Amino acid sequence: MKRTNVRTFRAALTATLLVAATALTTIAMANSASAGTTLGASAAERGRYFGAAIAAFKLSDSTYVGILNREFNSVTPENEMKWDATEPSQGSFSYGNADRIVNHAQANGMRIRGHALLWHAQQPGWAQNMSGSALRSAAINHVTQVATKYRGKIHSWDVVNEAFADGSGGGRRDSNLQRTGNDWIEAAFRAARAADPNAKLCYNDYNTDGINAKSTGIYNMVQDFKSRGVPIDCVGFQSHLSNSVPSDYQANLQRFANLGVDVQITELDISGSNQAAVYATVTNACLAVSRCNGITVWGIRDSDSWRTGQNPLLFDSSGNKKAAYTSTLNALNNGTPSSPAPSTPSGSIDTSAWYVLVNRNSGKAVDVYNFSTADGGRITQWTRTNGNNQQWQFVDSGSGYYRIKSRHSGKVLDVYNFSTANGASIVQWADGNGTNQQWRAVWSGGYLRLINRNSGKALEVQGASTADGGNIVQYDDWGGNNQQWQLVRVG
């Protein structure tokens, strides 16, 4: 009797099992893709984040951290990155509490919104006593130093916060920063871009939820910035609401998106008896605007809120889910999942874009483990968060090959030590344009396989793992689902 080739048998058997498993998974996902069990997971299925503003000193509170880690996939430091916290004395920087938040977020696969580089409030005393060119120089230096410190770790920066006045005028707020010259906001954005080219740069403000004089003043500034090439990527809408939301809330978000910037709901909290319904309305508005990146609530439990006694958050003071939590999660789950709708058309790769690479078998994303920036940093799969460590750019090497560059580290996918063996590790490494860093895309039915130029082997999730932390390796190209990747454009 003829002996069956072991590798052929293994491939056939594994393919059969994967097809069966995929069929079952597809059935399960059809039932669960629109029924995420946490805010962050459901938002991620729709290509968005759901975050919370947090305080470093509360990271020792087990109830607080339990809710944070379970429910949210983005964090904003409440105060720890503001000017008075990070530069208490001129030229002397203090990052301890900000680092606690960044480290926690990175360890738990959360993206980070930096808040806020420049603001008329919460300035250190030494800055409050400055004016004119001296203050301008100090402010720009502050932006440069802090944005450089966290370069590659921040998804979005609130570069400037609350610089427009309330009322019917639609103009700038009078402040020591404004008195340094009307171009101070532009200067801050240009400095932030130079310090961290990959972070989204946002302007953030309150009482801008509907179309009014204040939001229109900001709209005009953004329109001017875009026309002149001033680097601005997003506008934040704080959305501190009470019992209702403006009827033109979604239209207001959309008009900013139409300018070519992303929009983010940055400090959401809602008081009043109609709280649950308003949370759902706001969530639906974000889902309806394709450039709405996500939602951040300003605190976790009611007892964590700055709005004392108003109970404006999604969890009560004991950490129990409120009706507003349920209405928000239901709104997210009723939204259309983003995958596969935004995936890249077969055969099409835009070398100016940033992509998340989602495995067909596991549904997880290629991820730089633990936000490493080191040569040799592990590459794994992880639940999709769209974090910078999960975003990749294809750099053309010619002849149909690409290097695949991490947005977080700037390093590229690399077959370690030019191995040609099955199971060899994929790591990140400084871009040397070596053949072990070059990959050819082979498309099939909307998915691609990535074939290494040096070894001829395919990028795969080792052992068809579906676990967070599953290793990314190379293996003979046999077309299994664990070797197939969907490109989801995120930037």
From TrEMBL:
<feature type="active site" description="Nucleophile">
    <location>
        <position position="267"/>
    </location>
</feature>
<keyword id="KW-0732">Signal</keyword>
<keyword id="KW-0119">Carbohydrate metabolism</keyword>
<dbReference type="Pfam" id="PF00331">
    <property type="entry name" value="Glyco_hydro_10"/>
</dbReference>
<dbReference type="InterPro" id="IPR017853">
    <property type="entry name" value="GH"/>
</dbReference>
<protein>
    <recommendedName>
        <fullName>Beta-xylanase</fullName>
        <ecNumber>3.2.1.8</ecNumber>
    </recommendedName>
</protein>
<dbReference type="InterPro" id="IPR000772">
    <property type="entry name" value="Ricin_B_lectin"/>
</dbReference>
<dbReference type="InterPro" id="IPR001000">
    <property type="entry name" value="GH10_dom"/>
</dbReference>
<dbReference type="InterPro" id="IPR031158">
    <property type="entry name" value="GH10_AS"/>
</dbReference>
<dbReference type="InterPro" id="IPR035992">
    <property type="entry name" value="Ricin_B-like_lectins"/>
</dbReference>
<feature type="domain" description="GH10">
    <location>
        <begin position="33"/>
        <end position="331"/>
    </location>
</feature>
<keyword id="KW-0378">Hydrolase</keyword>
<keyword id="KW-0858">Xylan degradation</keyword>
<comment type="similarity">
    <text>Belongs to the glycosyl hydrolase 10 (cellulase F) family.</text>
</comment>
<feature type="signal peptide">
    <location>
        <begin position="1"/>
        <end position="35"/>
    </location>
</feature>
<dbReference type="InterPro" id="IPR044846">
    <property type="entry name" value="GH10"/>
</dbReference>
<keyword id="KW-0326">Glycosidase</keyword>
<dbReference type="Pfam" id="PF14200">
    <property type="entry name" value="RicinB_lectin_2"/>
</dbReference>
<keyword id="KW-0624">Polysaccharide degradation</keyword>
